[in-house]
Amino acid sequence: MKIVSDRDPRFQDAFWKELMRLMGVKVAMTTPYNPRSDGQAEHTNRVVEDMLRSFVDDNPEDWDLYATNVEFAINDSRSDVTGFTPFELCYGVSPMSQLDMFLEAAQSASGRRKGGVGTAHEWASRFSSQLRDAMSRLKLAQQRQRDLFDQRHGQREYVRSGRPCLDRG
Q1: Is the pTM of the predicted complex or chain greater than 0.70?
Q2: Alpha helices per DSSP H over 76-116
Q3: Is the pLDDT of residue 104 over 80?
Q4: How many helices, marked H, and strands, marked E, lie in the chain?
Q5: Mean pLDDT score, 107-114
Q6: pLDDT in tens, 43-62
Q7: Neighbours of 82 (CB within 10 A)
Q8: What residue spans define the domains of the chain?
Q9: Could you give the CA distance from residue 10 to residue 31 in angstroms, rounded to a whole number?
Q10: Fewer CB within 10 Å of terminal CB in the chain, N or C?
């Protein structure tokens, strides 16, 4: 597992370094002051904050009571980029609601749902297809973001001279 941190000091002290080492987690630091590298994390943090705020307008101290619901909602939300939910990409399926469980039980009782090896092969095939599709969509989205960044910032011309100059202003 790998965590990419935006140079948060908490990931740089001895306790966290040792804990991550013991857990087999690699911690990589983003380039300082580079919004391209931590933009997704910042966006997700804003979404979480906004969702929690909507639950706890009257009692801000109760935010922790809603954190698991917010996490579930985010992980069960379809991504515009990948076309899948985080649950689907991590586990191959979305979690079942009570209605889903009822419908599956009804189908099983009526004999319309088969079990066994055929179902396992179908699941594995669908899961592999979802992952391939998500990866290709991610690559397209990254390319679009790269193109937008390049359009806004343009290409810089560098002239070779005897002395380099730094702009400190």
Answers
A1: no
A2: 86-91, 98-109
A3: no
A4: 6, 2
A5: 62
A6: 788 888 888 888 888 888 88
A7: 19
A8: 1-30, 36-75, 79-151
A9: 17
A10: C
